[in-house]
Amino acid sequence: MQKYLVSKAPYLRNADQGHSTKKIMIDLLISLIPVILFALIKNVVLVFINNSYSSIYQALYPLLTIIIGPLVSVVTEAICLLIIKKGAIKSFKDLIEEVNVGFGLIPGLLIVLVAPAYLPLWILILGIIFGEVVGKMLFGGFGQNIFNPALVGYAFIVFTFSSQVSASYMNSYEIGIDAYAGATPLTAFQSITDVTYNNVVLPYGSLWNFFLGTIPGAYGETSALAILIAYIYLSVRKVIDYKVPLIYVGVVFLITSLIAAIGNIGFWYPVYNILSGGLLFGAVFMATEPVTSPKTDLGRIMYAGLLGVLTILFRLIGNLPEGVATAILTMNFGGLIINKYCIKMRVDGKLTKNEVPGLVVYLSLFALIFAYDIIFTLI
């Protein structure tokens, strides 16, 4: 019987192209620069300019969390490594090398960027520790995890501290629109019964404000422009498969366009769904993670399409105002099944009689979810 050797990503596919794991992670950090800069300008610089803070600590809080978050992640990973590799790590230099290989600062930074703005520091730290330990180190460290560590930490924060999350303070100034403090657009959308442009979008200005990011929301998720710049950079550098975010966002656009057309809501509705919440950030930075996403082209296409369906299901039908994190975590597990079939199809060119029913059942399940998604939303 032929056996297949399947290992965890990321891979060194072509050393001549210099696509080492280290360079990939450096490119990822570079791509986050416009996102972080926008977050600091919006939440720190303009706070000082508009004198809209009650204390220096409050004004500098976003900057402090962006610094503290990665540090907490690195320290947590270092402690875990000392426990897991007690005999192998014999000096501080060895520990530093192990931490560098694991790129421990990235999960902490990503959690800070997707967590609710102005979340109490102790909750943020607990979320980072949980994501690092449960989402990464318990699986064996970098490259062995089956779930995205940053999203594991984010889910822990949202579901464990829901009351504190809902009470998190959003900056009370916004660029170009009236002062607004309170829930994010998607959270507010849950309580709106008359879905019109005036009720959903107008309180925040226009869709242009959504694109620029001058709306309440997490530090890293609000500016579609900054995320688009990151997407182009990562795609050109071939760090991510450009098709995954494109298909993911495209499916969300198609489903919400269908809902808008049947419900006579308007073209603004699918655009609003794309620019709201963490869809774009999740599509570019979370769904494309090489460790937890499928390894074949066909697998990634299936993965991205199903992400779009699940996101709408969780966002519009489930009691989850966001839905992106839940969808990606669900498909992290589903990706294991996709990998099993797609890798065999790539090698053999076909599946055995025993494997076909399993794939049919799996795809049929998501077809039913898709149908339920559309019908329930329109009722």
The counted number of beta strands is 0
User: Number of helical segments?
Assistant: 18
| Unreliable residue stretches | 1-8, 11-19, 171-182
In this structure, how is the largest beta sheet organized? none
Q: What percentage of the residues does DSSP assign to strands (E)?
A: under 5%
Gross morphology is: globular
Alpha-carbon distance between the two ends:
51 Å
Helical/strand content category: mainly alpha
**DSSP helix fraction:** 55-70%
Overall pLDDT metric:
79
The Cα radius of gyration reads 21 Å
User: What is the N-to-C order of secondary-structure elements (H for helix, E for strand)?
Assistant: HHHHHHHHHHHHHHHHHH
Protein described:
- Helix content is 65%, strand content 0%.
- The protein is mainly α and 379 residues long.
- It has a domain at 240-379.
- Helix 7 runs antiparallel to helix 17.
- The longest helix is centred in the first third of the chain and has 29 residues, at 56-84.
Quick summary of this structure?
The protein is mostly helical and 379 residues long. 65% of the residues lie in helices and 0% in strands. Helix 2 (33-49) runs antiparallel to helix 12 and helix 16 (297-317) runs parallel beside helix 18.
